Amino acid sequence: MILKIAKTSLILTALLPLNLWAKVTVENAVMYETTMANEPSAIYLTLKNSGDETVNLFLAESSVKSRLELHGMQQGKMISLTDGLAIPPQQAISLARGGAHIMVFDLQKPLKKDQQFPLTLYFDDGEKVALDVRVIAR
C-alpha cells in the first residue's frame, strides 16, 4: 500500500508545472511597437532570481521570425552581452531603456500596440522561461 502511494505521489509530482520550481521570474515585459518590417525594437523587463546562486541569462528566442540579442550599455555605448547577463541570488535586475535590454532585429512584419510577442529566455542553470511580451506605443 505504501509503495502504491509513493508511486502515485511521484507520478503526480512529475505532472506539476515546472514553473512551480522556477528560480527566475519575469515581470513587466514590454517592447515598443514598430511601424515597418525590419525596424528594430527592444524588450524591457524585470528578472527576479529567488534562488541561492547567481543565474546567467544567456539566450533569448522567439517563435516570431526575428533575431534577438542581449545588449548592455558601457560608457554610453551599446555593447553585446556575449557572456550573458548575471542575476545575483535573491535579487532582481531591470532591463530598461539606457541599460541592459533585449534587442529585436529583422522582424518580418511590424508589431502593433497591444499585440503579444512570444519570448523564451534561457538560463545557464538549464531553466527556461516562456512568456508573452506586451507591445506598447512609442
- Gap between N and C termini, in Å? 62 Å
> Which strand-content bin applies to the residues?
over 45%
SSE arrangement, N to C: HEEEEEEEEEE
- CATH topology label: Immunoglobulin-like
- As a whole number of angstroms, the C-alpha radius of gyration is 18 Å
When the domains are counted, the total is 1
Global geometry = globular
Are there runs of 5+ residues with pLDDT below 50, and where? 8-20
Task: Please give the CATH class.
Answer: Mainly Beta
- Helical amount among residues, as a percent range? 10-25%
The biggest beta sheet reads: 10 strands, mixed
Helix run count = 1
Q: Let me know the CATH homologous superfamily.
A: PCu(A)C copper chaperone
Mean pLDDT: 88
Q: Structural class of the helices, strands and pairings?
A: mainly beta
Identify the CATH architecture: Sandwich
Total strand count, please?
A: 10
Keywords: Signal
Pfam family, one: PCuAC
InterPro entries: LpqE-like, Lxx211020-like, PCuAC_sf
Protein name: Putative DR1885-like metal-binding protein
In short:
Helices cover 10% and strands 49% of the residues.
Write up what this structure looks like.
It is a single chain. With 138 residues, the protein is mainly beta. It has one domain (22-136): Sandwich (Immunoglobulin-like), CATH 2.60.40.1890. The protein is 10% helix and 49% strand. It has one helix spanning 2-15; strands at residues 24-32, 41-49, 55-61, 67-74, 77-80, 85-87, 91-95, 101-105, 116-123, 128-136. A hairpin with a 4-residue loop joins β9 (116-123) and β10. 17% of the residues are buried. This is Putative DR1885-like metal-binding protein.
